[in-house]
């Protein structure tokens, strides 16, 4: 009996709330129409033509008979909702937010059915999230800041369905501007990661205004260093030390991993480049006999592995690795982990874009203190390289 009374009370409260919302919406529309004719367009004749009734789904429930005012000539349109919109904008925003957070289109559809009683197909949900595509195209064509102290380049693979399912790369570029702000500069989807793909992407960035770069940080993808230098010949290159160390771990016996990593830390954590070179010579003497290929690989790349030591000490720990971009990649993977594969290239772009906007909103309100501290030295480096060439 108690539960029946509780339900009746709950239903009565729901009805009262919906009535209150309906009355306020109708009052607002009346005032809108009055303002439209008396203030905004006094030259038009306000020939009232009563009201028409429509359904509107709100977060408070469905209003079955919302009275919308109209004039005889059809000049007035309420700004509360689009002419053919049956739901408040909150629904579209909710769908996009759920999609952004890794819910599949099927799961979003089930959620909408539970709260509104309407069945939404995966295709319909996908169409609703397509509004993001316009934002993506505009964002990917925006003019770019002309100076970046650092560009971090990395790629990750997601399963994408075209004719069949295969892993395809998502190229991501994170930058630190000369003023100390970080941002995801852009991303591109498709195919296998390649130096040619990166060169095309970097050329596009340069054409959009990103003209001056001090340092590019990336892994050892074949040909990437050359491609980067072809687009930004005056920039330095930093090979990601963390990637290089991981390659060592996969190439040595288990018992030797810890001592080798300890000896390598003495190289890339040295206080000066001279100390780093001395530490590498010690590493070389210790491990050449057991692992000649590992030592040779490090020796061949040593210059680009230690580039960061020519930069201000305060930012060195931020520029010898692509860790900053790898955190972004992990977030993208997190958003897609519930999906066995993504149904289209557009679906991948939507998720990556929404992740990028989250990061850029967060980073846009926070300077990197380390880069701000190094700003005067970095500006001198910019001027020395680009003003005399």
From TrEMBL:
Q: Which UniProt keywords apply?
A: DNA recombination, DNA-binding, Transposable element, Transposition
Q: What is this protein called?
A: Mutator family transposase
Q: Which organism is it from?
A: Sporosarcina saromensis
Q: Does the keyword Kinase apply?
A: no
Give the family, as the similarity comment puts it.
Belongs to the transposase mutator family.
Give the coiled coil ranges.
Answer: none
* TM spans (from-to): none
InterPro entries given in the database record: Transposase_mutator (IPR001207)
Q: Does the keyword DNA repair apply?
A: no
């Amino acid at each position: 009996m108690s539960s029946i009374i509780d339900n009746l009370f709950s239903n009565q409260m729901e009805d009262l709330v919906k009535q209150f919302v309906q009355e306020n919406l109708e009052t607002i529309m009346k005032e809108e129409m009055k303002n439209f004719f008396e203030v905004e367009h006094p030259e038009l004749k306000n020939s009232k033509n009563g009201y028409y009734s429509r359904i509107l789904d709100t977060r408070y429930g469905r209003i079955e008979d919302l009275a919308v005012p109209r004039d005889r000539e059809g000049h007035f349109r309420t700004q509360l909702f689009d002419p053919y919109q049956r739901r408040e904008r909150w629904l579209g925003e909710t769908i996009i937010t759920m999609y952004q957070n890794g819910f599949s289109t099927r799961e979003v559809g089930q959620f909408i059915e539970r709260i509104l009683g309407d069945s939404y197909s995966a295709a319909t949900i996908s169409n609703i999230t397509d509004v993001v595509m316009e934002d993506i195209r505009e964002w990917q064509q925006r003019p770019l800041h002309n100076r970046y102290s650092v560009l971090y380049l990395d790629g990750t693979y997601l399963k994408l369905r075209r004719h069949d399912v295969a892993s395809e790369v998502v190229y991501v570029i994170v930058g630190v501007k000369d003023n100390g702000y970080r941002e995801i500069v852009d991303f591109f989807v498709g195919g296998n990661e390649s130096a040619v793909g990166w060169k095309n992407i970097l050329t596009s960035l340069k054409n959009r205004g990103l003209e001056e770069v001090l340092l590019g940080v990336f892994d050892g993808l074949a040909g990437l260093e050359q491609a980067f230098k072809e687009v930004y010949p005056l920039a330095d290159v930093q090979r990601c030390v963390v990637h290089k160390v991981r390659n060592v771990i996969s190439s040595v016996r288990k018992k030797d991993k810890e001592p080798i990593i300890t000896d390598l830390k003495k190289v890339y954590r040295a206080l000066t480049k001279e100390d780093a070179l001395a530490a590498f010579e010690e590493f070389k003497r210790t491990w050449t006999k057991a692992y000649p290929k590992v030592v040779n690989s490090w020796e061949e790349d040593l210059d680009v592995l230690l580039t960061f030591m020519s930069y201000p000490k305060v930012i060195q720990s931020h520029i010898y690795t692509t860790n900053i971009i790898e955190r972004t990649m992990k977030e993208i993977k997190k958003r897609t982990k519930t999906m066995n594969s993504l149904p289209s290239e557009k679906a991948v772009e939507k998720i990556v874009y929404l992740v990028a906007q989250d990061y850029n909103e967060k980073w846009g309100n926070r300077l990197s203190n380390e880069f701000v501290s190094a700003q005067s030295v970095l500006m001198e480096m910019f001027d020395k390289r680009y003003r005399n060439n």
